[in-house]
Design brief:
Two copies of one chain form a homodimer.
Chain A lengths: L11 H11 L6 H11 L2 H14 L11 H13 L2 E4 L20 E5 L8 E6 L5 H16 L3 E4 L5 H7 L6 E4 L13 H7 L4 E4 L11 H12 L2 E5 L6 H11 L3 E4 L10 H8 L3 E2 L3 H12 L21 H10 L5 E2 H8 L3 H13 L3 E3 L4 E4 L1
Parallel strand pairs in A: 3-4, 3-7, 4-5, 5-6, 7-8, 8-9
Antiparallel strand pairs in A: 1-2, 2-6, 10-12, 11-12
Helix pairs in contact in A: 1-3, 1-4, 3-14, 5-6, 5-11, 8-9, 12-13
Chain lengths: 371, 371
């Protein structure tokens, strides 16, 4: 079992408040995390939301998830035996809790203990070759026999083979939509059969039909929960490569299965190996690489932005100067601090207010633009 | 054209002497090199050979190649338009001249200027797949178009495809036997057709039928002459992996073409990539890696053992002590120096005498045993 440095159990009231906060407009995992950290609990953050969004220049009042809606979501979850868990609670994958944008509440269904065990992700092409499917099956089985939980995306092709091979040993399906909106629909049976010894997880509310943009977003959960990600067959520009990139950004091990240069289904994996991914031909390649990592404790609350304070109280004079520095061309937090002369806490707070007002866009590398 | 820091042209007399020296008993390329360096020319070394071998404990007089035999070999070579060239002469591949055990005289046939150009080795399975042969053909053609000479071993399979694809752009065949003993015999036509724009090289005298042990020995010339070696398909324990190991020891780039983990013909190349070889799917992967290396000058005489002096004149008292330290269990030069208390020059000289007497076996890592 993965080590974890603390466990948590939310009260029903705090769970309800947190659910309202994450389901409110313009609140993503990072904003949620900043607000929770600053205000200490979700209820206080909820109370301050309208004021902060107004200060950020919101044209109208953003929608705040009502108590009734949140209660309805919790009730619907309970009917499907879906638990909405916070990072640090039993059943929330410990490694997933360590990523920057960990879901504040994760919908978890199935065998919760499985989610606390070391996981390896196996992902790849939907239209994989027979050889690719065969390899994924064997690799998944061997990793399962080695005590690992195999996590994947329930897609056709490689994902499906990886799940099927580990129904007995334990497998986790990460959904892009709500727990009642399985995609592809014909994998409902596969999902049902894996829940006895495995689990399904989603950050989306029930009823949410997965859209195209939800899949890359979902992929960060596959890599984030795992020690490492194995890519089995991926063409150039395939979705599996997004998972590989996210894995690398999250500090997860990236493994790729090689193929003939003449096989376009191996072009993406061969490229990954050129870029430094570890070449995998058998499960021991993966196990040997992740074993030393498993032995280190998982430390929650070790994120880079942790402990960076906010300051909503002072700095009214600075606000205008900071907003004036923002525009359609990207600017970094560091430049904003330098050019505005305001404190980092004030700059971060103003950006958060703009976030809540739906006026800020955050890009890679800490760059922001005003919408 | 590869840069080279000096050119040499032997006199007929010196070429004859060098040929006699390298064709004499118990003289390999390293011993040749030590003797030439110590005595300044091959003739002096030849004169001293009987005495040195006797001091090494030779039971009888070792065979010294006669003037007549050497003249006959030179005449036979001339009849086939084979030039016997020394490192530093035009037509002797400049990079090959830099390896520790470069042939003191290399038999060269064909277009000599081609041998001065930058080379890439392409080697692989004799029983390659159609895909492997197709890839080798395309890679060789692209490297040829990129201005590189493709060097290989004239074997069936990958070697053959690499040569055939570069008959126009220039290719070099490295033979394990003499120039008149082509292996496999059915590749005589291929060899003849590549000589117009390419060359064949061998360190063996004409008439020498290649034995099994000559092929690994030959492989060091393939890698040594090249900037890097591309392995296209190789099963576990295949001969191509010997070439890869030699390339790595010689400081040459090692490239490997990946394949499916389910294809045993890719097991060796996938392993090479795991061990650090660069993954190749197209010629630019090779060209980009070797271009910075091509820009550095090739320095002859930069070998590690260069300038390590010998001393045959003093140290008669030390000889017995050094020989007593030798036996069937391997001992290093450093230990011999330390335990005998003799100077490095004397220890090296005693070992060379034992070499000439046929009593010394040299192993990897500078270890020696007495036979």
């Amino acid at each position: 079992m993965d080590a974890i440095n603390k466990t948590l159990h939310l009260t029903d009231a705090e769970r309800l408040d947190r659910l309202r906060l994450i389901r409110s407009d313009n609140i993503g995992p990072r904003t949620f995390q900043s607000l929770l950290q600053h205000f200490g609990d979700a209820r206080t953050a909820l109370e301050r939301l309208p004021d902060l969004a107004r200060r950020g220049g919101a044209s109208g009042p953003g929608r705040i998830c009502s108590i009734e809606d949140a209660k309805a979501e919790l009730a619907a979850a309970a009917r499907m035996n879906v638990h909405l868990l916070a990072p640090g609670e039993i059943g929330y994958p410990p490694r997933l809790a360590t990523i920057d944008d960990a879901p504040p509440l994760l919908g978890v269904r199935g065998a919760l203990d499985v989610l606390m065990r070391p996981m390896i992700a196996i992902v790849g092409s939907r239209n994989a070759s027979d050889a690719g499917l065969k390899f994924a099956t064997q690799l998944a089985r061997d990793l399962g026999d080695g005590g690992f939980i195999v996590i994947s995306g329930l897609a056709r092709g490689i994902d499906q083979s990886a799940h099927r091979a580990t129904i007995e040993s334990g497998t986790v399906a990460v959904l892009a939509g709500g727990h009642d909106r399985i995609y592809p629909p014909e994998h409902g049976d596969l999902l049902a059969s894996l829940l006895d010894n495995g689990a399904a997880i989603s950050e989306m509310p029930q009823g949410h039909v997965p859209r195209a943009r939800d899949f890359p977003r979902r992929n960060r959960l596959i890599s984030g929960a795992a020690l490492g990600v194995v890519i089995v067959e991926a063409a150039h520009r395939s979705g599996s490569l997004i998972t590989a990139r996210m894995a690398a950004e999250q500090g997860r091990e990236v493994f790729a299965v090689p193929g003939s240069p003449l096989d376009p289904r191996a072009a993406g994996t061969n490229d990954l190996i050129k870029q430094g991914a570890a070449l995998v031909t058998q499960a021991t390649d993966v196990i040997n690489a992740v074993t030393p990592i498993m032995e280190r404790p998982i430390v929650l609350g070790a994120r880079e932005d942790d402990g960076e304070p906010l300051d909503f109280e002072t700095g009214a004079d600075d606000r205008g100067r900071i907003v004036n520095l923002l525009g359609p061309s990207p600017i970094s937090l560091d430049d904003l601090i330098r050019l505005s002369g305001a404190s980092p806490a004030i700059v971060r707070s103003v950006l958060l207010e703009l976030d809540l007002a739906g006026r800020l866009e955050r890009h890679g590398g800490g760059l922001v633009t005003l919408i």
